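Hi R.,

Here's the chain you asked about this morning:
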Amino acid sequence: MIDDGAYFSPVEPTVDLPNPVVVEGILRARGCPWPRPHVVTTTGSTNADALESLTSGADTGLCVVAGEQTAGRGRRGRSWVSDPGAGLWSSTVVRDYPQPARLPLLASLAVVDAAIQIGGPVVHVKWPNDVLADDGRKLAGILVESAAREPGVESAAGAVVGIGINMDHAEESLPAPGATSWRIAHSIVPDRSTLLAELLVALNNRLTTEWSRSLADYRRCCRTLGTGVEIDLPGGNRIEGRALDVDDEGHLIVDDGESARTIVAGDVVHATIRT
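And here is the predicted structure, written out as tokens:
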């Protein structure tokens, strides 16, 4: 377990790593009570590290950040390429949030909020939680993993919100087809400390904001709505149709030509944007 009352880092902060002291200062100035982040040069997976801390009793807001992940995880069992110094890879503990299924949508909004706050690139959301640059390519991905309450263990159930933002990649070094980076989308790469701090402030704000307000914001920035889509469903089935809206829980409503279907989980391909 990482002790959330103390700062641990095996290296001095560099230009490619957030400075935890600077981040903490911004958090306090912005009224965010979360602890100083834990910054490491390399780890297997920041989500795995944060989940271990969560099950050991860490509080909401503990954030693990790495300059490189050697076993980064993506949605549906995929790997997440996390080259050294090329991105901002973070995982944050969220304990006892009453509606954990909403966390992926809230996390995507936090990335949008942070980009706006620091004057970054124009970004949108692809349902449920991919963050796209204005050209439709993927800038950031989100993986929320839960930890159930174990019998006989006093630690509460919770989740870890993993957010990976491609930062410094050039076109020739992008991790996957359909990806982009902050540098490509905006030319200017922000200070990692400032971006991380604004991301944590935004996530804390979204967790404490009325859900109806966040849902309205999500509808405004979700590029999926109103487009033709193909959706790969869990189990291997695929449907095609037009994305109409999201319901009150953020599930996607799709007109497949015969009826309006509610999609709880799946991978969306926009008809004109393949990411």
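One quick note: The chain has two domains: 20-221, 228-270.

Cheers,
M.
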